[in-house]
Amino acid sequence: MKLSICTISFRHHLYSMDQIAHWAKSKQFDEIELWGVHAKNLGLNSYYGKEWLNAYGLETSMISDYLPLEASIETMIKETQILSNIAKHWGTNKIRTFVGKKGSEQTTQQERSELLEKIRIICQKLYLEGQYLLVETHPNTLADTQASTIKLIQEIDHPALRINFDVLHVWESGVNPVEAMKELRPFISHFHLKNISSRNELSVFAPENVYAASGSREGMVPLFQGEVNYREFLTETVKTMEVHGSLEWFGHNVKDVLTSDGDEIRELINQLNVNKLYQFKI
């Protein structure tokens, strides 16, 4: 398993990229997921990039952005090219986006058709660059339910389309994340890992709250202390696929929580490997 931190976790902190990379390496993380805003502000700076990050023993797992599907095709293609160039600069072939700004049930067939056409255009463009578009499973998008996500994959029908499986949001939709993972497994390229103390607190992850410096953080909890059973989920997932996942922490005490969650995940993986070795010897 390769584990990332997200630079979005430091969105309200005054840390340099150098400090984040140094800290991530010191805490045994493997990769860094670059938030699109941060990636664009760094641009194609000749100092920062793939080689610079590799010098820390780290890689870029993904560029997480929000491609402007509501804009004109010309604007959308321009933004896609900018992100494609940035992804190359940082040595990743994964670009994350959301599809739409309304839930699948609230999206008309005409709106869905227009979104699908734009996603196809992006996939075709990225495919030529050897890159992938990762659609995130997320409320108020076309990937808000298991059924709509599968339908989206079938409708696009393109090898560049992949899934960023947000475990919490899949659970939020009312399905078992383990069963959903098994069904979507051929299309998953990344996981977002976060948890909540109660289903009643899920609104804390609404964009208008979670991105606000003064927003509530009530209900955000470390990975193994919430409603989603990550011990079960990770145990089942690492058995069947190579896992690349990001700890997507939006709450307070960023370094402490990420350190603790990272340590607990590595301990779990070590236990699974030991058990596997023991079973093999038997």
UniProtKB/TrEMBL annotation:
Highest rank taxon of the organism: Bacteria
All residue ranges annotated as the Xylose isomerase-like TIM barrel domain in the record: 49-260
InterPro entries for this protein: IolE/XylAMocC-like, Xyl_isomerase-like_sf, Xyl_isomerase-like_TIM-brl
TM regions (residue ranges): none
A Pfam family of this chain: AP_endonuc_2
Alphabetical list of PANTHER family matching this protein: HYDROXYPYRUVATE ISOMERASE, XYLOSE ISOMERASE-LIKE TIM BARREL DOMAIN-CONTAINING PROTEIN
Name by which UniProt lists this protein: 3-dehydroshikimate dehydratase
Record lineage: Bacteria, Bacillati, Bacillota, Bacilli, Bacillales
